[in-house]
Write a structure and sequence with these properties.
The chain is an alpha/beta fold. It contains 14 helices and 22 strands. The strands form six sheets. Strands 14-17-18-13-12-19-20 form a seven-stranded mixed β-sheet, with helices on both faces. It has a six-stranded mixed β-sheet with strand order 9-8-7-10-11-21, with helices on both faces. Strands 5-6-22 form a three-stranded antiparallel β-sheet, with no helix packed on it. The site of nicotinamide-adenine-dinucleotide has 32 residues, from helix 7 and helix 8.
Length: about 500
C-alpha cells in the first residue's frame, strides 16, 4: 500500500535531533496537537470532535491533545477492519510476504527509536535509558519474532482409519479488538498486534486513555512498512466509552485485553455473553522468595529491580519479598542502605532509573496504601512519601517491613514503587505465602539449591517463575496469568495460537 499522508504526530512535535538524547526539561515540547484517529488508513478527527489532554507525568503539565474517540468512531474502525479482512489484502497474502512486512516494522521501530523513546517517555514518564533498551528494543523484537512465525501458521495431516485424507488449516479469526493498559503501551500493543497480523487478522486498537502516543506513531510505522489500509486501526479514547464500544461491538471476532482484574472481569463477562473469544492479561502481585541458601547480593539486586522497575507500574513486578528468617534483618538493613540510592528523577536524564508515576491518581493510590500499612502496624524502612520535583508525579521507592500476610497492603495490587518484606520459617510456609493472594502472574525464587529451584517452581501458582533474577522476558518465552491474573498467553507460539482457529478438511477417497 502507499500512504502519502503524514502522521498527525509528525510536524507539531519537536524532534530529538541526531544525538538520540531526550530534550532537556527546558526544551521539552510544550505542544502536541493533531493526534487523530487512524481508521482505514486515514488520519481522522473524532466524529464528535472530542479531544483529550496528554499530560507529561514529569511536570504535570498538559503538552497537547489527542482525539477522544467514541462509539461512532469504533463503529467506523470496525467497519474499516471488516472491509479490509473481507477484501483479503492481508489474509490473502502469503505468510512469507506478511513476514517480510512485519520484519520491516521491526526495522522501522529501530530506525525511529529516538522518536518512540521520546513519545513513550513523555506519555508515561519512563526514564529514557530504560525506555530505549526495554520498551523500544522489545517492541522491535516482538515484531521480528512474529515475522518468523508468520511463515509457519500451518496445519497438520491426520492419520485416520476412514478412507479419507484429513488435514487441518489454521485460519485467522477476523477483527481483533485489542485493548491495552497505560504502563507498557508500546510493548503490550506490539504483543497483540504482531501475532494477530502474523496470523492474517485485522485489528482495532484502543490504547489506554492516558498513554496513546506510541500507538498513533506505530500506526504510521505499520503503514509505512506496507500493512494495507484498514488492517490496523487505532481509536484513542476513554475505556468506559471507546473501550466499552469495542468490547460490545458485534463485528469484533476476538478481544485481546490487558489491564486491571476489575475491568478484565467485566470485559470477560461481556465477551462471554456474546461468545467472543478473549485473552485476559490482568493484574499481578508477585512474591520473590529468598531462601537461606541464596546469594544475598544477587537477591538484593533482584528485589530492588523487581519493585522499582517502571516505577512499580509493572504487572509482573515483585512487590512482595519473602525472606528466610535468618536473613530477614540482614536483608532489611541492606535494603535500607541501598534503596535510597536508586536514582529517582527526571525521565529525560539518562542517569534516571525511577521516573514519575504515569498519573497523579496513581500516586494518590500508593499514598493511601502506605497510610494503610502504617495503620496495620507496618514499619517504613525507607521512602514512604512523595518526592517534590518539577510538579511531577513522583513517589520515593518505599520498603515496608513487619506487615501481617493478611494485610490489604500485602494482598492487593498496589502498582507503585512499594516493597513489603516478610519473614518465613519453612519452604512450605514460603510457598503458601507466595500463593496466598488472588493473583498468579509471576513469581520468583532466590536459591543456590538446584533441586529446590525446580521443586518450588513447580508449586508456585504463576504463569512465569524466575530463579535468581527478575523480569527475564523474551518474545520467545510465553507469559500470562492464572487465578485473578487472567488466562491465555502472550509471546512464543502460545501467543499466536489465540489469533487462529483450526478447521478440519476431510476428503473422501471412496
Ligand atoms: P485498566 O483496566 O484501567 O485499563 C486497561 C484498558 O481497558 C485501557 O485501555 C482502558 O481504557 C480500557 N477500559 C477501561 N474500562 C473499559 C471498559 N468498560 N470496557 C473496555 N475497555 C475498558 O488498567 P490500567 O490501569 O490501564 O493498567 C494497569 C493494570 O493492568 C494493572 O492491574 C496491571 O497489573 C495490568 N497489567 C497486566 C498485564 C499483564 O500482562 N497481565 C500487563 C500490564 C498491565
Amino acid at each position: 500500500m502507499t500512504n502519502t499522508q503524514t502522521s498527525p504526530l509528525d510536524s507539531p512535535v519537536e524532534t530529538t535531533g541526531d544525538s538520540g538524547q531526550m530534550p532537556s526539561p527546558t526544551t521539552a515540547p510544550s505542544t502536541l496537537e493533531h493526534g487523530e484517529l487512524f481508521i482505514g488508513g486515514q488520519w481522522l478527527p473524532a466524529a464528535a470532535g472530542g479531544r483529550r489532554d496528554v499530560v507529561d507525568p514529569s511536570t504535570g503539565n498538559a503538552v497537547g491533545t489527542v482525539a477522544e474517540g467514541d462509539a461512532g468512531d469504533i463503529d467506523a474502525a470496525v467497519a474499516a477492519a471488516r472491509a479490509a479482512f473481507d477484501q483479503g489484502p492481508w489474509r490473502g497474502m502469503s505468510g512469507r510476504e506478511r513476514a517480510r512486512i512485519l520484519h520491516r516494522v521491526a526495522d522501522l521501530i529501530r530506525e525511529n527509536a529516538d522518536e518512540l523513546v521520546r513519545l513513550e517517555s513523555l506519555d508515561v514518564g519512563k526514564p529514557v535509558t530504560l525506555c530505549r533498551v526495554v520498551d523500544v528494543a522489545t517492541a522491535a523484537e516482538v515484531y521480528e519474532y512474529y515475522s518468523g512465525l508468520a511463515q509457519a501458521v500451518d496445519g497438520a495431516t491426520r492419520e485416520t482409519p476412514m478412507n479419507a485424507v484429513a488435514y487441518t488449516r489454521r485460519e485467522p479469526l477476523g477483527v481483533v479488538g485489542a485493548i491495552t493498559p497505560f504502563n507498557f503501551p508500546l510493548i503490550l500493543s506490539s504483543s497483540k498486534i504482531a501475532p494477530a497480523l502474523a496470523a492474517g487478522n485485522v485489528v482495532v486498537h484502543k490504547p489506554a486513555d492516558d498513554t496513546p502516543l506510541s500507538a498513533l506513531f506505530m500506526a504510521k510505522l505499520l503503514s509505512e512498512a506496507g500493512v494495507p489500509d484498514g488492517v490496523v486501526n487505532v481509536v484513542t479514547g476513554a475505556g468506559a466509552v471507546a473501550g466499552e464500544a469495542l468490547l460490545r461491538h458485534p463485528g469484533v471476532d476476538k478481544i485481546a485485553f490487558t489491564g486491571s482484574t476489575a475491568i478484565g472481569r467485566h470485559a470477560a463477562a461481556v465477551a462471554g455473553e456474546a461468545l467472543t473469544p478473549v485473552t485476559m492479561e490482568l493484574g499481578g502481585n508477585a512474591a520473590q522468595i529468598v531462601f537461606e541458601d541464596a546469594d544475598v547480593e544477587k537477591a538484593v539486586g533482584s528485589a530492588i529491580k523487581a519493585f522499582v522497575f517502571n516505577t512499580g507500574q509493572f504487572c509482573m513486578g515483585g512487590p512482595r519479598l519473602l525472606v528466610a528468617r535468618p536473613l530477614y534483618d540482614t536483608l532489611l538493613g541492606i535494603l535500607a542502605q541501598a534503596v535510597p540510592g536508586v536514582p529517582v528523577g527526571d525521565p529525560r536524564d539518562p542517569e534516571t532509573v525511577v521516573g514519575p508515576m504515569a498519573a497523579e491518581r496513581h500516586v494518590a493510590k500508593v499514598e493511601s496504601y502506605v497510610a494503610q500499612a502504617v495503620a496495620d502496624g507496618g514499619r517504613i524502612v525507607c521512602g514512604g512519601e512523595r518526592l517534590a520535583l518539577n510538579g511531577g508525579f513522583y513517589f520515593k521507592p518505599t520498603v515496608i517491613a513487619d506487615l501481617a500476610n493478611d494485610s490489604r497492603v500485602v494482598q492487593e495490587e498496589i502498582f507503585g514503587p512499594v516493597l513489603t518484606v516478610q519473614p518465613f520459617d519453612t519452604e512450605d510456609e514460603a510457598i503458601a505465602m507466595a500463593n496466598s493472594t488472588p493473583y498468579g502472574l509471576a513469581s520468583g525464587i532466590q536459591t543456590t539449591n538446584l533441586a529446590r529451584a525446580h521443586r518450588v517452581a513447580a508449586r508456585l501458582d504463576a504463569g512465569i517463575v524466575w530463579v535468581n533474577d527478575w523480569a527475564m522476558l523474551d518474545p520467545a518465552v510465553p507469559f500470562g496469568g492464572v487465578k485473578a491474573s487472567g488466562f491465555g498467553r502472550e509471546y512464543g507460539p502460545e501467543g499466536l495460537a489465540p489469533y487462529t482457529r483450526d478447521k478440519s478438511v476431510v476428503i473422501s477417497l471412496d
